[in-house]
Automatic annotation (TrEMBL):
Membrane topology listed for this record: Multi-pass membrane protein
Compartments reported by the entry: Membrane
Main location: membrane
Organism for this UniProt entry: Evtepia gabavorous
Domain EamA residue range list: 2-131, 142-279
Name of the protein described by the UniProt record: DMT family transporter
This protein's UniProt keywords: Membrane, Transmembrane, Transmembrane helix
Cited SUPFAM superfamilies: Multidrug resistance efflux transporter EmrE (SSF103481)
Lineage start: Bacteria, Bacillati, Bacillota, Clostridia, Eubacteriales
Any Gene Ontology CC annotation: membrane
PANTHER family associated with the record: EAMA DOMAIN-CONTAINING PROTEIN (PTHR32322:SF2), INNER MEMBRANE TRANSPORTER (PTHR32322)
Family affiliation: Belongs to the EamA transporter family.
InterPro entries documented for this protein: AA-Vitamin_Transporters, EamA_dom, EmrE-like
Transmembrane segments: 27-45, 57-74, 86-106, 118-139, 145-166, 178-197, 209-228, 240-258, 264-281
Length: 295
């Protein structure tokens, strides 16, 4: 339920982002939303994490760099070079990359199953039908490779989150610390983008409401629920819910923007659902670990 709630909200954020892009630069939206998210998590739980080791702090910093700073920057930059449909499909390979990294770094914790790979193929077919419906398929190497790098960075974040969850710290405190590291890494990039504070833009009710939604909902709430889901389900099982983002996007565009679902989009939604179910199905593992991982 936590993973589904997260994906449902993340699948609707494109509407808020699209509205805010009229008055804000992508880097401004990114910084403001995570500043709001960190502030909200501090109000919810003002306690501090105590007793972390230097190695643990490095892991938290790496999570902030990957999941907060690099992922969103790479995604936004990729969108300036290639089509949004390309980025949407390429980012959907994140569960596959997560599976590879899980097999390498968390061997014995989550088994690779044939059903996962079958589900991946079916889901990608569905996402392609949704994303390229009525659009011209075009290969834009720079933007597409940046999108693939963003998917890889998110897979790294998933693995780091799984490792961090084993420490036993409260999820809210961990998420807030990761936010702070992400914001810290984000600050130097402001000099390379057209950033300005421009708080007068927040006097426009539409801007304020949508930024609050991104900061409090899509950032503060969703990263807590996502990290909680990774803690309970594991990095691999949680990551496959990413397949549902294009589906949620299509459904919300129909409900809010009054767009129509074409037959190809309908088939794509069906394939994506089937792919998710196949990936989550508990079939026979492709390989059995020799021994359990020691925690």
């Amino acid at each position: 339920m936590a993973a589904l709630l997260t994906i449902f909200i993340w699948g609707t954020t494109f509407i808020s982002t699209k509205i805010l892009l009229k008055d804000f630069q992508p880097i401004e939206i990114l910084l403001f939303r995570f500043l709001l998210g960190a502030a909200a998590l501090f109000l919810v739980c003002p306690r501090r994490i105590k007793g972390t080791s230097p190695k643990q702090e490095l892991t938290l910093a790496a999570a902030g760099l990957c999941g907060i700073c690099l992922y969103y920057l790479l995604e936004n930059i990729a969108l300036t070079y290639t089509m949004a449909s390309n980025v949407g499909v390429i980012l959907s390979v994140a569960p596959f990359l997560t599976a590879i990294l899980t097999h390498w770094f968390l061997r014995g914790e989550e088994k690779l199953r044939l059903h996962f790979f079958l589900g991946f193929l079916v889901a990608i077919v569905g996402i392609c039908l949704i994303s390229f419906n009525g659009a011209q398929l075009a290969w834009n190497p720079k933007g597409d490779w940046l999108a693939l790098l963003a998917a890889f960075v998110w897979a790294c974040y998933s693995i780091l989150t799984r490792k961090i969850s084993a420490w036993g710290y409260p999820t809210v405190l961990i998420t807030r610390r990761v936010f702070l590291y992400g914001i810290l890494f984000m600050l130097p990039t402001l000099f390379f983008f057209d950033f300005r504070l421009g708080l007068e833009r927040l006097t426009i009710p539409t801007n304020l409401v949508n930024l609050l939604f991104l900061g409090l909902g899509a950032s503060a709430l969703c990263f807590v629920t996502w990290n909680f889901a990774v803690k309970i389900l594991g990095a691999l099982k949680t990551s496959v819910y990413i397949y549902m983002v294009p589906v949620i996007t299509v459904i919300t565009s129909v409900l809010i923007l009054h767009e129509t679902i074409t037959p190809l989009s309908g088939v794509g939604i069906g394939c994506t659902f089937v792919g998710l179910l196949l990936s989550e199905y508990k079939g026979k593992a492709l390989s059995q670990p020799k021994q359990n991982m020691q925690v």
